[in-house]
């Protein structure tokens, strides 16, 4: 009777360090699970338990190093995302009224909310406060290019020149959007990139290219003209007049070619001010259909506007010609008119190959063309005509393939 209690007490006392070790291991596991890696366990001896404690300590060291590396990478990524000039907006998808912003970088905050935090806000309410051009781009699916007028941009006006007032230039934006699932829920990432300065740099490079093209074309015409003029003078000196007709015909042909070449560039450089007149859109489009094939998506009834008919006709011919050359079947080339509260929207639609991001960003740059023999003046001239009417030109890829080029003309001209 005396031995049994003493043996029980001795066993309990001997097992106390083991019980303490197991409690320490359980607590350490809980701290690792909670993301704390600073706890340490010590065990005297060189047995299997000591090996278990060392393995546990090595595991904590590995997890601590991985956590530090992950934190550093997250910090680097966050620094890059926050300081990129591209406005990034991550929206949790769902019902239209339930879509909320879950992440926005500094550029997005400055662009859409004056620098204030955007996380947690309703996406539709945020878009409702944006400029009309941005709202329309957000409402469409897919990537798009749009222009915001100077009056809608919060920026300091340029200093006034002597005798003139300050003027804020328009800003060109490219919108890219991608959808994916994050933590099992659908999300949408929107990227808004300001292209104005980049377009200006590209315009400088393009003008250099234009000068080279014009110089090449002038040399190709003037060199043979000079040579033929010299040959004609020699023929006259020798009294051989029978070949002069061919000489003069070739000179005339090269001169007319050069005249047409220069006229095309001059038309773009010296676009006259629109001469506005009241036009019935039904009759105007009927006359346009006699020049080029297209399908009118909706009937135009009792709709008129004040435009320069010749200039708008040229702009629409450029767009419709591009639509036919896009690879779209002729019956898929369509024109649609929509009356908005303050605008008349004219859309030229096709089912061709559309535009990739690079072409979409450069499409409005003068003399930029992906066609081998293209001048790159079609869209640029169309944009000049539309903006001379106080309107806007935008383009985006259509869902299901193809391109939509939209002209928006103000109804205030009516």
From TrEMBL:
InterPro entries per record: HATPase_C_sf, HATPase_dom, His_kinase_dom, HisK_dim/P_sf, Sig_transdc_His_kin-like_C
Keyword Cytoplasm set for record: no
Recorded catalytic activity of this chain's protein: ATP + protein L-histidine = ADP + protein N-phospho-L-histidine
Gene3D superfamilies: Histidine kinase-like ATPase, C-terminal domain (3.30.565.10)
Alphabetized GO MF terms: ATP binding; phosphorelay sensor kinase activity
Location of the Histidine kinase domain: 213-413
PANTHER family: HISTIDINE KINASE, SENSOR HISTIDINE KINASE
Protein name: histidine kinase
Lineage, opening ranks: Bacteria, Pseudomonadati, Pseudomonadota, Gammaproteobacteria, Lysobacterales
């Amino acid at each position: 009777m005396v031995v049994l209690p003493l043996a029980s007490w001795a066993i309990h006392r001997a097992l106390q360090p083991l019980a303490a070790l197991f409690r320490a291991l359980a607590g350490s596991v809980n701290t690792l699970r909670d993301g704390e890696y600073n706890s340490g366990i010590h065990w005297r001896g060189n047995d299997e338990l000591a090996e278990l404690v060392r393995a546990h300590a090595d595991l904590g060291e590995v997890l601590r190093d991985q956590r530090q590396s992950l934190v550093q990478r997250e910090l680097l990524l966050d620094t890059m995302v926050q300081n990129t000039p591209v406005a990034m907006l991550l929206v949790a998808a769902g019902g239209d009224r339930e879509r909320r912003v879950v992440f926005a970088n500094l550029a997005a905050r400055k662009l859409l909310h004056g620098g204030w935090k955007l996380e947690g806000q309703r996406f539709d309410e945020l878009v409702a406060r944006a400029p009309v051009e941005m709202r329309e781009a957000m409402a469409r699916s897919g990537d798009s290019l749009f222009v915001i007028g100077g009056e809608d941009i919060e920026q300091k006006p340029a200093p006034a020149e002597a005798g003139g007032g300050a003027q804020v230039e328009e800003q060109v934006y490219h919108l890219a959007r991608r959808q994916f699932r994050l933590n099992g829920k659908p999300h949408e990432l929107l990227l808004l990139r300001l292209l104005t300065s980049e377009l200006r740099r590209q315009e400088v490079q393009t003008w250099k290219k234009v000068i080279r093209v014009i110089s090449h074309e002038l040399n190709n015409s003037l060199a043979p003209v000079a040579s033929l003029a010299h040959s004609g003078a020699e023929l006259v000196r020798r009294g051989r007049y029978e070949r002069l007709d061919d000489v003069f015909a070739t000179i005339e042909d090269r001169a007319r070619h050069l005249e047409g070449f220069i006229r095309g560039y001059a038309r773009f450089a010296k676009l006259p001010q629109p001469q506005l007149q009241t036009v019935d859109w039904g009759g105007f489009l009927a006359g346009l259909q006699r020049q080029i094939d297209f399908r009118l998506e909706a009937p135009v009834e009792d709709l008129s506007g004040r435009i320069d008919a010749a200039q708008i006709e040229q702009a629409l011919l450029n767009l419709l010609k591009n639509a036919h050359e896009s690879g779209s079947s002729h019956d898929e080339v369509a024109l649609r008119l929509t009356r908005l509260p303050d605008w008349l929207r004219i859309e030229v639609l096709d089912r061709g190959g559309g535009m990739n991001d690079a072409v979409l960003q450069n499409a409005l740059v003068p003399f930029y063309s992906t066609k081998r023999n293209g001048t790159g003046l079609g869209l640029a001239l169309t944009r000049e005509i539309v903006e001379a009417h106080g309107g806007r030109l935008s383009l985006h890829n259509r869902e299901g393939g193809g391109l939509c080029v939209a002209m928006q003309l103000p109804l205030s001209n009516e």
